[in-house]
Prior knowledge:
Shape: globular
CATH class of the largest domain: Alpha Beta
Distance between the termini: 68 Å
Amino acid sequence: MAEVRISSDVLSAAAHSHIRGLGLDKDGKAKKIGGGLVGQEEAREAAGIVVKMIKYGRLAGKGILLAGPPGTGKTAIAIAIARELGEDTPFVALNASEVYSLEKKKTEVLMQALRRAIGVRVRETRRVLEGVVTEIKYLRKRSVWSPYPQIAGVKLTLETKDDSMSFSAPPEVAVQLLRLGVKKGDVIIIDAETLDVRKVGRAKGRGSKLYDIDVTEEVETPSGSVEKTKDVLRTFTLHDIDLSIAAQRAVFTGLLALFGGEKEISDEVRRKTDEIVKNWIEEKKAELVPGVLFIDDAHLLDLEVYSFITKAMESDFAPIIILATNRGMTKIRGTDIESPHGMPRDLLDRLLIIPTRPYTTDEIREIIRIRSEEQEIPLSQDALEELTRLGSTHSLRYALQLLEPSRIIAESQGRIKVEKQDVEAASKLFADIKTSVKLLEKYKDLMLY
């Protein structure tokens, strides 16, 4: 039987779903466009060295800090590092503000994030649906809780060389298909029991042209039946197992526990999980997969959290910790101490710092072209140049945010392709931060304090 990997990693950022790796050649040099990334050659090459250090086990006691202006690809590089480490490497993205929860202690939030970033790879025989997507139609319905239509499911047709099957799938599958950007001509695998979806690549010979900016790999069309049994490598996380054990115990502690849920995982449950996983590993039933914990806006953390992170990096049982910040010299949260990036210097000494720089005009043009292809928004050359100009003079994020409004304006005028006038119209309706600041200054006497 063939083998396939189905991952349960957390890649929540749909804007970065096209990233396949760091885009380095065999000598570790960054390609101008590669792996779904554009530019930032020095940062990507540094990240490539970090990946080798991780694979060689030479990163113990250290972490990574991505430091640079907003919109310079820090999150994208962190995701690319996880992709380079393996397809089923868990990736957990956490914003520093999420650490400060009203329901959980700061250390509990971080502990759960750390355990979500450590995978346990288990070999199982599973029933799956595998094939090329030839038809895909999302079903939507109105909800009494929201004025907007909600995803209600999806109708799919999958084909192999020998078989074809049409079926309806629930919202869980539809949401995954949207997040993965699945289109006609893509080869996917759906676990029939867990409903996990994996996008394998684009089928060869299905009329899907690959461009130089495309980030989807070509794969062979599967053979045999659409519904089949396969050896599957599934990756759970330690936190998944923690929750499962906690839920089992809740059954024996009464209905209140079932309804209220367990806001924090007890040390006893975690020790039980560690014991189970240790036995699986000794019996050769499973193996550990250290993942990546990415904490964005790390300058928002305080001394207590920094101390916890420092201790976690020294542990033998920890994921790769990557911090990101766009701050320069600033005060450490909760203190009057000024420090680089708002972080304690003893922590900075333990971090490999990778700087990112602003994108050039050519790089901004390529990024906009990639994103428009990913979102299936056709641009005329004039529209692309106008967006590039806005990205250079205002910000890349602002230019990317105008893609969808420009498409809607073009559609309202009966055009399929976005033209320059559509981008100009969108830019007049939606202000960037520089324009917003000017408006604040102009109307400051009318603003409320």
